[in-house]
Amino acid sequence: DNNTGKSSVLEAIDLVLGPDRLNRRPPVDEHDFFLGKYLAKPAAKSEPGASSIVDSLAQADVGSPDEVESAPRIVIEVTISDLSEEQQARFGDYIEWLNITSGLLYDVPDPAGVDAAAIVAALRVTFIGQYDQDEDDFGGNTYFSRSLTESDTPQPFTKKDKQKCGFLY
Fold it and tell me: Are strands 73-81 and 119-132 parallel, antiparallel or unpaired?
């Protein structure tokens, strides 16, 4: 049916895997955020006379009650399976093993107690976009998902990497 989100899903996949999408400046804008809310909200203020951790931080000159919460982010994760041998070789450090029956991910291709026939190589990539108040601009980038949790420096999923995945919108 119309207005059920089909195009939104395809646009989200394009944001993650489309090799030219990040060339669009900015890659996301206020219309990509739910109800157009992309600015960070001010932190909640405490009632007069009440003491809080925020007040303690302000007194310690570490922060102030006027600090803001982090800005909303757009986070889209895509799992790619059915990888060719060339893709497995190129993305080897970031390959995970997907149980196509349960949807669970593993670090090894033959986890104990799991039917090996249901395990396939998979690659997870994640787009993260948000508004940067300091730059007064929207930004975003795509990363290998494993590097977001296992590395001090997230590794970008580059345009050349995206071209190896062959996604066309």
Answer: antiparallel
pLDDT tens profile 29-38: 999 998 999 9
Nearest C-alpha neighbor of 13 from the set 75, 78, 74: 78
The answer to whether 125 and 144 have CB atoms below 8 angstroms apart is yes
By the 8 A CB rule, do 21 and 27 touch?
yes
On the question of pLDDT at 118 being above 50, the answer is yes
| C-alpha dist (Å) from residue 9 to 13, 119, 123, 165, 169 | 6, 26, 19, 18, 11
The number of angstroms, rounded, from the C-alpha of 50 to the middle of its chain's C-alpha atoms is: 38
**What is the value of pTM for the model shown?**
0.79
The whole-angstrom separation of Cα 124 and Cα 148 is: 11
Q: Across-strand partners of 94?
A: none
Integer Cα distance of 24 and 9 in angstroms: 18
- Are the C-beta atoms of 138 and 28 separated by less than 8 Å? yes
Q: Are 42 and 33 in contact (CB under 8 A)?
A: no
pLDDT tens digit sequence for 56-89 = 434 444 444 455 578 899 999 999 999 999 999 9
